[in-house]
Write a structure and sequence with these properties.
- With about 450 residues, the chain is of the alpha+beta class.
- It folds into 3 domains: about 5-105, Rossmann fold, CATH 3.40.50; about 130-200, ATP-grasp fold, A domain (Dna Ligase, domain 1); about 205-445, 2-Layer Sandwich (D-amino Acid Aminotransferase, Chain A, domain 1), CATH 3.30.470.
- It has helices spanning about 10-25, 40-45, 65-70, 90-95, 105-115, 115-125, 140-150, 175-190, 250-265, 295-305, 305-315, 395-405, 415-425, 425-430, 440, and strands at about 5, 30-35, 45-50, 75-80, 100, 155-160, 170, 195-200, 205-215, 220-235, 235-240, 270-280, 280-290, 330-340, 350, 355, 365-370, 375, 385-390, 410.
- The strands form 5 sheets. It has an 8-stranded antiparallel beta sheet with strand order 13-12-9-10-11-14-19-17.
């Protein structure tokens, strides 16, 4: 087992990893920016090292500073958390080169699945169903126009690097292709330093469904069910649930089997998530996230498996203590992402928390670093808490969520708590009929 783990992240995910390390009896080191000097992870870690100023480039993306901190504190492993360097192949490679263990997949798998063109090729080889599109990168407009004839419209021009909706443009007809192609390349270059793009058929009203997989170094691979992540704004998830209210038991078992088999064929190691679009009863692979997901708590709730604990044990060479036959899915879980944003304009609202009360009760979990007096910094992602509820069924989970949202207090700053309270009154949430476009095109456009 590791003698000391450095946690190269911040916020609730850093605290989540820290708690898993404490449960395993492993000492921890937190690296932090000057803006996070008073954060809960810094207060609770065994050691902390300030590695730079508030800007992420000066701290949480500062690889030399993180390596130095790990070396001087005697760490033998690094957990990258979520975001920042979690899917940076070079970071994983250089951690290993310095004699430490990167708690995650190999640099090779991070590299392959981080490039969406390479990911599609790898997925096809592993037997995953793909959205119809180009077989690889499309270097010229002329080639794009020729390929579009076979793929058909509407068409999506997508950046090979990055995500979050950047470098992604829709061409509804052949007349729109030139502008969409140029715009996607320009945006991708500015955002990711790489203007490589590829083509996919644009699905008009899909759902976003992902499958949690986990694999050890002894040849064992299992899936832990699916998560429904279709409530999104600007490609950012706001509300997730497990299992999906849209799938039949047969569909659920089939996509889980396919995802697990593909993971095994890839020789993948650790925790990962296969993401799919689902429409008209068909699944289409879109990408694989080679890290822990923000929404992992709902999978933990319905399986009883501590994903971060298993992630650490696998990295240490351990064997999964369960097989696919051992996995039992219990009830229904929902997660609301609480952001420091105005619930109507979505403008960030950093500031001092004068009053804080986390919801509680049976089946309620809150992952957050908030406390009364905490200063929410303006430099990072606006996520400040994850409210997770678990019930015997979806009806009970929704009822518990309503009560938890009413009980949750973060004052005086505006948050998306109010948005989630409104969401629960929407018929599409109540009956689970929402799709990936519902929030922006229907719910937020209501008078």
């Amino acid at each position: 087992m590791f003698k000391k783990i450095l946690i190269a992240n911040r916020g609730d995910v850093a605290l989540r990893v820290l708690r898993a390390c404490k449960a395993l009896g492993i000492p921890t080191v937190i690296v932090h920016s000057t803006a996070d000097a008073q954060s809960m992870p810094v207060k609770l870690a065994d050691e902390s090292v300030c590695i730079g100023g508030p800007a992420a480039a000066d701290s949480y993306l500062n690889i030399p500073a993180i390596l130095t901190a790990a070396t001087i504190t005697g760490c033998d492993a690094v957990h990258p958390g979520v975001g920042f360097l979690a899917e940076n192949a070079y970071f994983a490679e250089i951690i290993a080169a310095h004699g430490m263990t990167f708690i995650g997949p190999s640099a090779q798998h991070i590299q392959k699945m981080g490039d969406k063109v390479e990911a599609k090729i790898t997925a096809a080889e592993a037997g995953l169903p793909l959205v119809p599109g180009s077989p690889g990168a499309v270097p010229t407009l002329e080639e794009a126009a020729e390929l579009a004839k076979g793929v058909g419209f509407p068409l999506l021009v997508k950046a090979a690097s990055g995500g979050g909706g950047r470098g992604m443009k829709v061409a509804k007809t052949a007349d729109d292709l030139a502008e969409a192609y140029a715009s996607a390349r320009s945006e991708a270059k500015a955002a990711f330093g790489d203007d490589t793009v590829y083509l996919e058929r644009y699905l008009d009203n899909p759902r976003h469904i992902e499958v949690q997989v986990i694999a050890d170094s002894h040849g064992n691979v299992v899936h832990l069910g699916e998560r429904e992540c279709s409530v999104q704004r600007r490609h950012q998830k706001l509300f997730e649930e497990a299992p999906s209210p849209a799938l039949s038991q047969q569909e659920r078992a089939e996509i889980g089997r396919i995802a697990a088999e593909a993971t095994a064929k890839m020789g993948y190691l650790g925790v990962g998530t296969m993401e799919f679009l689902w429409q008209d009863g068909q699944f289409f692979f879109i990408e694989m996230n080679t890290r822990l997901q923000v929404e992992h708590p709902i999978t933990e709730a319905i399986t009883g498996i501590d994903l971060v604990r298993e992630q650490i044990l696998i990295a240490a060479g351990g064997q999964l203590p369960f097989t696919q036959k051992d996995i039992e899915f219990d009830g229904h879980a929902i997660e609301c992402r609480i952001n420091a944003e105005h619930p109507e304009t979505f403008m960030p609202t950093p500031g001092k928390v004068a009053s804080f009360h986390a919801a509680g009760g049976p089946g309620v979990r809150v992952d957050t670093v908030l406390y009364t007096g905490y200063q929410i910094p303006p430099f990072y992602d606006s996520l400040i808490a994850k409210l997770v509820v678990h019930g015997a069924d979806r009806e009970q989970a929704l009822a518990r969520l309503r009560g938890a949202l009413d009980e949750f207090v973060v004052e005086p700053i505006p948050t998306t708590l109010a948005l989630h309270r409104r969401l629960l009154d929407a018929p599409a949430i109540q009956d689970g009929s929402y799709t990936i476009r519902w929030l922006e095109e229907t719910f937020l456009n209501q008078d």
